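Below is a filled-in request sheet from our internal design queue. Each sheet records the structural input a requester submitted and the sequence that came back. We keep these sheets so that new team members can see what a complete request looks like end to end.

REQUESTER: design group, bay 2
PRIORITY: normal
MODE: inverse folding
CHAIN LENGTH: 245
BACKBONE (tokenized):
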């Protein structure tokens, strides 16, 4: 039988060379395992596994400090951002409040100006009325003045007539004498003589009297306006009268 062949049921017999080979392989395996577990940059040790596992582990402090500083910086940045937002909101609120106050002051100033304008307009209106009252139109105390005053009153009461129509009939009836009286015509015979510039009988004067004038039949303006009012009713206008009426 050849040497070193293991047969079933028999334990192999190790030679001295075999033993030395096995011991060498075990030693190299342990050294390789120790080298692999050692930290980077550390010296290789051939101590056993129990010694390696019991060695203290040292942790650096600088990375932890850096992480803490980074978080603190982030919190500080967030705080500054919040403060900036709050400051912007406060500034916007202040601007809004200032604009509202300015708008309120502007509205109040406009209202005051409008009130002053209305007051000044009312004052000017009162002044104009006063001036017009003081500067009332005046008429001369003669035939020309009486006719012009009568025409103004007639215009106010919508009684037609012209200067020419009044003048021609006055001259024909009384020659311009406000105290003229007819004592010979039928009216005189009946006891109601015609009187004044346009020779009006008393019943006609009373019936066609114009408000705002005298009730005296001899008053020039009252006589003219009453006669013209009567002529407008009967003939359309004193201008249409060319004879006794």
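RETURNED SEQUENCE:
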């Amino acid at each position: 039988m050849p040497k070193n062949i293991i047969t079933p049921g028999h334990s192999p017999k190790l030679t001295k060379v075999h033993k030395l080979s096995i011991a060498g392989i075990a030693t190299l395996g342990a050294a390789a395992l120790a080298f692999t577990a050692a930290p980077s940059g550390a010296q290789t040790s051939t101590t056993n596994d129990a010694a390696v596992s019991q060695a203290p582990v040292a942790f650096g402090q600088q990375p932890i400090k850096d992480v803490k500083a980074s978080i603190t910086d982030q919190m500080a940045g967030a705080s500054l951002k919040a403060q900036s937002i709050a400051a912007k909101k406060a500034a916007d609120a202040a601007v809004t409040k200032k604009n509202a106050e300015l708008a309120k002051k502007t509205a109040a100033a406009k209202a005051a100006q409008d009130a002053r304008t209305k007051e000044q307009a009312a004052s000017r209106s009162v002044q104009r009325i006063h001036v017009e009252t003081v500067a009332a139109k005046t008429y001369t105390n003669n035939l020309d003045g009486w006719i012009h005053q009568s025409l103004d009153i007639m215009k106010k009461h919508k009684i037609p007539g012209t200067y020419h129509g009044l003048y021609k009939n006055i001259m024909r009836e009384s020659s311009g004498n406000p105290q003229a009286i007819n004592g010979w015509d039928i009216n005189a015979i009946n006891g109601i003589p015609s009187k004044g510039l346009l020779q009006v009988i008393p019943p006609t004067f009373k019936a066609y009297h114009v408000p705002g004038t005298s009730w005296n039949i001899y008053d020039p303006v009252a006589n003219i306006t009453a006669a013209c009012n009567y002529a407008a009713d009967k003939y359309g206008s004193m201008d249409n009268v060319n004879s006794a009426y």
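SHEET NOTES:
- Residues 1-11, 33-53 have pLDDT under 50 and may be disordered.
- Helices lie at 16-37, 49-53, 62-134, 143-156, 163-174, 186-189, 202-207, 220-235.
FILED BY: M.R.
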